[in-house]
Amino acid sequence: MGLYAKVARYFALMAENLRDSPAIALVTGGNRGIGLEIARHLQSAGFRTVITYRNGTPPGGFESVVMDVTSTDSVDKAFEKIESEIGIPEIIVANAGITKDGLVLRMSEEDFESVVNANLTGAFRVTKRAVKGLLKLKRGRIIFIGSVVGSVGAAGQVNYSASKSGLLGMARSYARELGSRGITANVVAPGFVETDMTATLDEKRRGEIAAQVPLGRFCSAEEIAKVVAFIASDSASYITGALIPVDGGLGMGH
């Protein structure tokens, strides 16, 4: 267990002593990739972690529920199930999202709207529903998983960049609206990440991408998960409305 995970677990356990049971963390799209790594770190930090998935078979070791973030009905049913069978989620990680890349002249309105619907409106659906429970608890963490391209843009990703950029305005509006209730809202923005997709790139292209990053390499899903676990912990109780880059310096704080 790394240092960040140990710190997060320490504070989570301290908070648990003040409660009847561990705080519940919900990770949307937690069945694979970055979301799964986040779920693992939150669980290691002492949170009772629930993951959502849209289809297929969820990974073992977690409580899980079907949720399609593009459907308000699906989101409502998932929360009703979680709240009735497990409890009110206190840590909300809005991670679920999609990409449909393409140059702007070839990008259809459907491709633009579907990405915005999943990544931005989907995050709104989830967090709006979650706020009902957070207000009852009078505490909570809303953590949006953004992207460096939300700040600096990316050729071929007009839809994805727009959706991720919108998360910052959403988080800061939540922060102002809900801060007095003990609820924080932040955006963790990864850069280029080691994923199954980037693993298929040839060495030349990987080198070209890495050369754009001051640290000269891709980010690991674990590095993102460590930051999310920190933001979820009591040690980050005074951080809200922040854009937290995990991008090797690529965005330089934009």
TrEMBL record:
Keywords: Oxidoreductase. Transmembrane segments: none annotated. Residues 23-196 form the Ketoreductase domain. GO terms for molecular function: oxidoreductase activity. InterPro entries: KR_dom, NAD(P)-bd_dom_sf, Sc_DH/Rdtase_CS, SDR, SDR_fam. SMART domains: PKS_KR. The keyword Hydrolase does not apply. The keyword Secreted does not apply. Gene3D superfamilies: NAD(P)-binding Rossmann-like Domain. GO terms for biological process: monocarboxylic acid metabolic process. Belongs to the short-chain dehydrogenases/reductases (SDR) family. This is Unannotated protein. It comes from freshwater metagenome.
